[in-house]
Amino acid sequence: MSLPVEKAAITTHILNLESGRPAADVQAYLYGPDSSEPIASARTDADGRVMQWDAPVELQPGIYKLQFAIGDWFARQERDSFYPEIKIAFRVANTREHYHVPLLLNAHGYSTYRGS
């Protein structure tokens, strides 16, 4: 029996709606409030998730951004994508909460929502 993976304060999950499969090995960057450079980065795992970042993330109130290198991911599959990257901005109000930001995508569109 494996131990559960501890989650970062901000996590994400990407699902390719065309195939119904997770989008594994997508490069993701996390930007903090007032940050022009990423505060952390990661690649999605085999289940399309980022549960931990390459740097600790300590929440502060403000606007955060997730950026996904979607064009590169589609190109590795020898497919075109309308969007070279996807940026999602969201507000962190309560620093004691967990923020999960899923991304549902295909080569020509995407949607997102606040997950649990």
TrEMBL record:
Q: Which Gene3D superfamilies match?
A: Transthyretin/hydroxyisourate hydrolase domain
Q: What is its EC number?
A: 3.5.2.17
Q: What Pfam family is a match, any one?
A: Transthyretin
On whether Hydrolase is a keyword of this UniProt record, the answer is yes
Q: Please give the NCBIfam families that the UniProt record associates with this protein.
A: hdxy_isourate
Q: What's in the keyword line of the UniProt record? A: Hydrolase, Purine metabolism
Q: How does it assemble?
A: Homotetramer.
The record lists the organism as Cellvibrio japonicus (strain Ueda107)
- The question of whether Hydrolase is a record keyword is answered with yes
Spell out the InterPro entries in the cross-references.
Hydroxyisourate_hydrolase, Transthyretin/HIU_hydrolase_d, Transthyretin/HIU_hydrolase_sf
The reaction(s) catalysed by this protein are: 5-hydroxyisourate + H2O = 5-hydroxy-2-oxo-4-ureido-2,5-dihydro-1H-imidazole-5-carboxylate + H(+)
Say which family it is in.
Belongs to the transthyretin family. 5-hydroxyisourate hydrolase subfamily.
Query: Which terms does the record give in the GO molecular function aspect?
Result: hydroxyisourate hydrolase activity
Q: Enumerate the spans annotated as Transthyretin/hydroxyisourate hydrolase domain.
A: 10-115
Could you tell me what this protein is called? 5-hydroxyisourate hydrolase
Q: What does this protein do?
A: Catalyzes the hydrolysis of 5-hydroxyisourate (HIU) to 2-oxo-4-hydroxy-4-carboxy-5-ureidoimidazoline (OHCU).
An individual GO BP term: purine nucleobase metabolic process
TM regions (residue ranges): none
